Amino acid sequence: MGSPAIAILGTGSYAPEKILSNGDLAKLVDTSDEWIFSRTGIRERRIAADNETTSQMAAAAARRALADAGLTAADIDLIIVATITPDLPMPATACFVQDLLGVSTHAACFDLNAACSGFLYALDTAWAMLGSGRYRHALVIGAEKLSSVLDWKDRTTCVLFGDGAGAVVLGPARGTAQIIGTKLYAEGAHARLLCIPDGGSNTPAPVLDALRTPRTITMKGREIFKIAVREMEDAARDILEQHQVPAARIDCVIPHQANLRIIGAIAQYLELPSDRFFVNLDRYGNTSAASIPLALDEARRSGRIKTGDTTLFVAFGAGLTYGSALVRW
Ligand code: ACO
What we know:
Peroxisomal Thiolase, Chain A, domain 1, 2 domains, binds acetyl coenzyme *A, five-stranded mixed β-sheet
């Protein structure tokens, strides 16, 4: 007997109220709406309140996903939070989410760090755990408070990112909807191209105060751009070939929302019209692990994804990690 079919039973998302436009950013650093929009496609992003945590945003998205799935916290026995901005270095943000939602102590809860590919890594992990038959319903959440790890004086990074959360509920397939496949990769040789260079165990607590290196995101943008296009193309091509799905049969692509020019390059490679790609980065910027589930939830709620559709998810992120997933609805 094969593994049971597992499907996405519900989706939810949350974005903080505060909007920071490109015009607002131009008052902070030497930039302009024209530069940011033409290079990235971003117009504005959401910024969490000072006292708003990653776990609170994650829980808000999860509540909506549970309602969409017609389930309650009592049904959940696994929570995975993909994030690079945990509430605290320890314990896992997933444990705070468990507490906020009132999920049973019998649930397994942990965080996963694969940066912007984090949601796909968490989806793959939860799918395998549910497929084993040892867990029944999982909350898979991508949540980030990236505003807390940005250098607001660095125009090369602070204009790109935003805060938010997206969640899905995974469980036994109820009809023909199901996860068809996932594929994950990493190229650790490029780990330093995009990182937070300090604040981990490389800098023991007693010397933290004497730090001269930043505890904020640093990035070699141009190098990342080229590698990201190649990685996302590879991830998309591999999964389509593996499952013998012609690109033309994909109803909707949900790409990691980092840069409209990267998405355009993937569309060209797959020979798909750009309207086949769901894009909301103009309103949210790059929300890292939250990016795909936030876009997915908007795509479903706007009717862009319908029963019977096949969607392709494709992402890249720090690590450098990358990956893809095929899902039927
Ligand atoms: N406003 C105005 N000028 C700027 C800004 C800004 N915000 N940022 C950089 N510039 C300047 C640079 O200083 C440079 O000036 P110079 O020519 O005088 O030296 C010029 O603009 C061009 O800079 P580039 O870096 O070459 O610009 P590019 O066209 O490559 O665009 C960008 C930069 C948008 C960062 C692009 O390279 C990119 O999107 N890369 C991918 C990055 C990415 O997606 N990272 C997220 C990874 S996901 C994760 O895991 C977090």
